[in-house]
């Protein structure tokens, strides 16, 4: 997600201040703000294994793209930003989206890149500082595809590319349909970034397949109208993403975790759905799991909403049920209200986490990813783990102007 001039959410869950108006949020029936301190610590403090990585607790920092890296280089302030949250109890940091080495991958010269000597040196420092603070960290590898517009940085001459050259509203953009050579170049770029991540000390990688960016553009019928092997039914539309997963898996160690983030909703198309039924969702997820995904990160706007009729399971719950893989849930954790409202200048009250703890105890999913609450309060995790619920504050959108 990206917030222009402040934070861009891909949620980097890429957040975009150009978001359309949202319907009123559905309130959870669980409104208690303070579960017992011992229960929160017991449930959230358990380690969890993601392939060969043991994460010390069940709390992750959701990826939230910030435009704080001039020239695509993460500096000391970026290292401090992540290390501060790791030191305060976040078990797994998922970084903001980072551009892979393809000229069409991004649209900002202030979003970090995961290629280039200076850029990777900066990321190595980030990883080292997070480890010194007691946390684990994975970079989110990202290509925005047809979200790019002509003339945007960091490479102004690069065209937007996508499965069919279509924007999210289905109209033709100022870009092009990807050729086989284009596909091969992007696959190689993701694999190179993953290999670099392991080489410089990261604990795994997350592939950004959500929110209407490039991989998601292939997964969704609304933007993928191809008639070759990369288009057609839902299984065929997974081919490109699965090939990226397989290429990544081939260049990293067998125990190195590969995470995959996906969503039903797209930026500006909030009602979009990749799968209307559990069977369709299984058709989507099975090829990705078979290609080498170790854990899924299922992005929703409100984690407490059921995904399909007839079951209380959310998207993460269905993902775990269908794949057997570890799953991270996300979507307004700790706050009552859709995260996208924050970029319209709206705050959000604190929301209890009793229902979240219930779901974790029932093994509906394995981890929770926290976004806005951790942006505003770097100590959110340690406060929750320590039962200091009275110190949690409502979200103030003005906090986005001074992130540290």
From TrEMBL:
InterPro entries the record matches: Aldolase_TIM, NADH_flavin_oxidoreductase, OxRdtase_FMN_N
Entry GO MF terms: FMN binding; oxidoreductase activity
Entry keyword Transport:
no
Residue span, NADH:flavin oxidoreductase/NADH oxidase N-terminal domain:
46-333
Keywords noted in UniProt: Flavoprotein, Oxidoreductase
What the entry lists under Pfam families is as follows:
Oxidored_FMN
Q: Which residues span the membrane?
A: none
Name of this protein: 12-oxophytodienoate reductase
The protein's organism comes out as Streptomyces dioscori
Source organism lineage? Bacteria, Bacillati, Actinomycetota, Actinomycetes, Kitasatosporales
């Amino acid at each position: 997600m990206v917030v222009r001039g402040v934070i861009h959410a891909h949620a980097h869950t890429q957040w975009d201040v150009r978001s359309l108006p949202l319907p009123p949020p559905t309130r959870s029936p669980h409104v208690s703000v303070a579960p017992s301190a011992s229960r929160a610590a017991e449930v959230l403090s358990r380690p969890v294994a993601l392939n060969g990585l043991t994460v010390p607790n069940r709390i992750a920092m959701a990826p939230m793209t910030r435009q704080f890296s001039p020239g695509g280089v993460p500096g000391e302030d970026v290292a401090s930003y992540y290390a501060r949250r790791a030191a305060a109890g976040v078990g797994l940091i998922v970084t903001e989206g980072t551009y892979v080495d393809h000229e069409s991958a991004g649209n900002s010269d202030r979003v970090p890149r995961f290629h280039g000597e200076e850029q990777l040196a900066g990321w190595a420092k980030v990883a080292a500082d997070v480890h010194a603070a007691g946390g684990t960290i994975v970079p989110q590898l990202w290509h925005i595809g047809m979200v790019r517009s002509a003339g945007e940085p960091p490479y102004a001459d690069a065209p937007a590319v996508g499965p069919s050259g279509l924007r999210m509203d289905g109209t033709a953009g100022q870009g092009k349909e990807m050729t086989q050579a284009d596909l091969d170049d992007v696959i190689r770029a993701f694999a190179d970034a993953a290999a670099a991540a392991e080489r410089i000390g990261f604990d795994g990688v997350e592939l950004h397949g959500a929110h209407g960016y490039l991989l998601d553009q292939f997964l969704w019928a609304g933007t993928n109208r191809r008639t070759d092997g990369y288009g057609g039914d839902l299984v065929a539309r997974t081919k490109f993403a699965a090939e990226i997963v397989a290429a990544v898996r081939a260049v990293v160690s067998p125990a190195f975790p590969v995470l995959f983030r996906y969503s039903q909703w797209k930026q500006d198309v909030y009602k979009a759905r990749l799968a209307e039924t559990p069977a369709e969702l299984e058709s989507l997820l099975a090829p990705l799991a078979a290609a080498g995904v170790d854990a899924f990160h299922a992005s929703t706007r409100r984690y407490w909403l059921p995904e399909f009729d007839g079951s209380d399971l959310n998207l993460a719950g269905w993902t775990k049920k269908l794949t057997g893989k570890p799953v991270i849930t996300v979507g307004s954790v700790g706050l009552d209200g859709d995260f996208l409202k924050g970029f319209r200048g709206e705050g959000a009250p604190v929301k209890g986490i009793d229902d979240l703890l219930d779901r974790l105890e029932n093994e509906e999913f394995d981890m929770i990813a926290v976004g806005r609450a951790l942006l505003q309060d770097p100590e959110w995790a340690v406060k929750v783990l320590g039962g200091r619920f009275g110190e949690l504050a409502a979200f103030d959108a003005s906090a986005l102007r001074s992130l540290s």
